[in-house]
């Protein structure tokens, strides 16, 4: 029940008072008890009690009436202390199950949800048996659910939380995902059938968030950068992962950062240029810079809706939850030592204050630059991919030029991920012969004039200038090394750029040397962007992840030729010297 409803109830019993009188009494009650102990609504409850009015009895009578009739209470009508509540809402966020130990030696299970109706969103705690409802009922983000015989409490910041008890039940009322509706459901508590809008219906364009605040936003945009997944240590000292990506809206790009990513909430396939829906994020501001931050409950899905066509991405029509057998040829292999310092920088996300003093332990990341071959290869699939085999625990021996087959665990942007459960095998066929392997490599060399932004390429070029190395101050105040050199082929020239530890790969180049570079990313040149005047201080390319941070707006220049691009070296890039 909101403030206006409580005031109206008091005035119904005490017509001799005005609204101003009641609110003044509430303010005095808050002053007398002390700051930080009462909300305005709580003070009104105490004012009503002083006047002999039982607000709780009226509310409980209303809730019993709606519950016994099978109808649901609107989320806006809930209040702290309400019991035996039934609500119908859609799921926005799904958190992993956590376990807690009780003082008596037993344990408790908790799964948090965020649900919403047409009026507001609210947190839900599913305890013990109810925590298993998501798997048991196959509940997904966007599905409508009904929670019966629950109770409502306030958390430390005063927001309401729905909790399940021993007599509570959770039901799935719709199997629709995103585009389904919940017609006939009563989300007002007044016996009227109301549709609860789906996630797609409440989503806003990502470029509209600059003027907004608040939590639990749902946004859509085009994935225009390769999602970067990095490791960091959270407040509890546990290793966790953060994902950073850029979404292009109608007017601008916005960086989206998902902390403590829960892989169950990510589509298994999110190709570049696909339309993406992200549910459950909040706006973070740093001066004029705006980012969207989510957490383990946030959802990232591909949108397939009216108006979305197969031309929007090359994988349209592919089930995002299913990844089948892929046939790949290995063009180059690289192993990189990733210490804690560089893994943090590679996230291109806001730095956590407590992550700088953690262990400096290192690990080896293993990558392969690959191309798709066989029947899967088509005009649309002429792309090059990064195969991340860092988490693969098998003993398959791979080498450059051989053909493999695998079942990935995930494909995000141009990165194919394998984990300990992935299938991978070297193909024993004529395609694995050394000569054919070299031929396939040459087939997949791209001309500089053909590159497109944020895609992965292999190029063959001549070094045209001496490498230039500079010290650059980044936005966060750190100093970073940046190297560039001009290279060219028979179609165009381009700048080859590296940062930090990759600078050494550029410094070693010589004028006139013919090089082959596997795994460079085409980035739009700074001159083709609208940037702040002080480019040095505003530069954000200094991390090894190196994506545009969205502070620069892409110009409306329609020229898509490669002279607007730079070729950026990454930690997985392989440069071969003096190739013939």
Keywords:
580 residues; alpha+beta; OB fold (Dihydrolipoamide Acetyltransferase, E2P)
How is the topology of this model organized?
Elements: H1 3-13, H2 19-33, H3 40-50, H4 55-68, E1 85-94, E2 98-101, E3 107-116, E4 121-127, H5 133-137, E5 144-154, E6 160-163, E7 169-172, H6 199-202, E8 204-205, E9 217-223, E10 228-233, E11 239-248, E12 253-259, E13 269-270, E14 275-286, E15 289-294, E16 299-302, E17 326-339, H7 340-346, E18 362-372, E19 384-388, E20 403-407, E21 410-412, E22 415-417, E23 423-426, H8 434-443, E24 456-463, E25 468-473, E26 479-488, E27 493-499, H9 503-507, E28 514-524, E29 529-530, H10 535-538, E30 553-554, E31 565-577
Parallel strand pairs: 4-6, 8-9, 12-15, 13-21, 19-22, 27-31
Antiparallel strand pairs: 1-3, 1-5, 2-3, 3-4, 5-6, 5-7, 9-11, 9-14, 10-11, 11-12, 14-15, 14-16, 17-18, 17-20, 18-19, 20-23, 21-22, 24-26, 24-28, 25-26, 26-27, 28-31, 29-30
């Amino acid at each position: 029940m909101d403030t206006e409803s409580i005031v109206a109830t008091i005035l119904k019993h005490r017509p001799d008072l005005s609204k101003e009188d009641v609110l003044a009494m509430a303010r005095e009650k808050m002053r007398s008890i002390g700051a930080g102990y009462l909300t305005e609504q709580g003070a009104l409850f105490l004012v009503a009690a002083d006047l002999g009015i039982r607000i709780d009895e009226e509310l409980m009578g209303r809730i019993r009436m709606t519950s016994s009739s099978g109808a649901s209470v609107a989320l806006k009508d809930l209040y702290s202390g309400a019991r035996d509540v039934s609500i119908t809402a859609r799921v926005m966020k799904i958190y992993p199950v956590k376990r807690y130990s009780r003082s008596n030696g037993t344990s408790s299970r908790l799964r948090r949800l965020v649900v919403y109706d047409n009026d507001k969103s609210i947190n839900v705690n599913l305890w013990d048996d109810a925590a298993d409802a998501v798997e048991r009922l196959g509940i997904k983000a966007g599905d409508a659910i009904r929670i019966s015989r629950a109770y409502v409490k306030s958390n430390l910041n005063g927001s309401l939380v729905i909790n399940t008890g021993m007599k509570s039940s959770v039901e799935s009322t719709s199997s629709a995902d995103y585009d389904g509706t919940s017609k006939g459901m009563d989300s007002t508590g007044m016996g009227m059938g109301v549709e609860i809008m789906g996630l797609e219906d409440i989503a806003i364009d990502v470029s509209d968030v600059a003027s907004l605040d608040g939590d639990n936003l749902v946004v859509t945009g085009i994935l225009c950068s390769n999602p970067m997944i990095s490791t960091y240590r959270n407040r509890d000292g546990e290793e966790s992962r953060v994902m950073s990506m850029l979404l292009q809206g109608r007017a601008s790009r916005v960086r989206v950062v998902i902390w403590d990513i829960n892989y169950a909430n990510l589509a298994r396939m999110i190709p570049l240029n696909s339309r993406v829906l992200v549910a459950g994020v909040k706006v973070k501001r740093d001066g004029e810079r705006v980012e969207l931050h989510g957490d383990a409950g946030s959802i990232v899905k591909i949108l397939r809706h009216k108006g979305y066509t197969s031309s929007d991405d090359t994988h349209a029509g592919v089930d995002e939850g299913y990844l089948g057998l892929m046939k790949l040829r290995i063009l180059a292999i690289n192993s990189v030592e990733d210490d804690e310092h560089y893994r943090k920088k590679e996230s291109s996300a806001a730095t956590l204050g407590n992550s700088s003093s953690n262990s400096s332990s290192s690990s080896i990341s293993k990558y392969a630059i690959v191309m798709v071959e066989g029947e899967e290869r088509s005009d649309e699939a002429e792309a090059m991919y990064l195969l991340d085999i860092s988490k693969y625990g098998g003993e398959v021996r791979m080498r450059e030029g051989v053909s493999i087959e695998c079942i990935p665990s995930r494909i995000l942007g141009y990165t194919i991920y394998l984990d300990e459960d992935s299938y991978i095998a070297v193909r024993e066929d004529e395609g694995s012969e050394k000569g054919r392997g070299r031929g396939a490599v040459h087939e997949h060399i791209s001309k500089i004039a053909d590159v497109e932004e944020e895609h992965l390429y292999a190029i063959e070029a001549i070094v045209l200038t001496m490498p230039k190395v500079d010290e650059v101050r980044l936005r966060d105040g750190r100093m970073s090394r940046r190297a560039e050199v001009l290279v060219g082929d028979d179609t165009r020239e381009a700048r080859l750029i590296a940062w930090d530890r990759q600078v050494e790969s550029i410094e070693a180049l010589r004028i006139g040397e013919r090089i082959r570079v596997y795994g460079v990313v085409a980035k739009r040149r700074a001159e083709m962007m609208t940037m702040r005047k002080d480019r040095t201080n505003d530069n954000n390319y200094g991390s090894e992840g190196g994506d545009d941070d969205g502070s620069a707006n892409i110009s409306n220049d329609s020229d898509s030729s490669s002279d607007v691009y730079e070729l950026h070296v990454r930690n997985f890039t392989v440069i071969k010297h003096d190739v013939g």
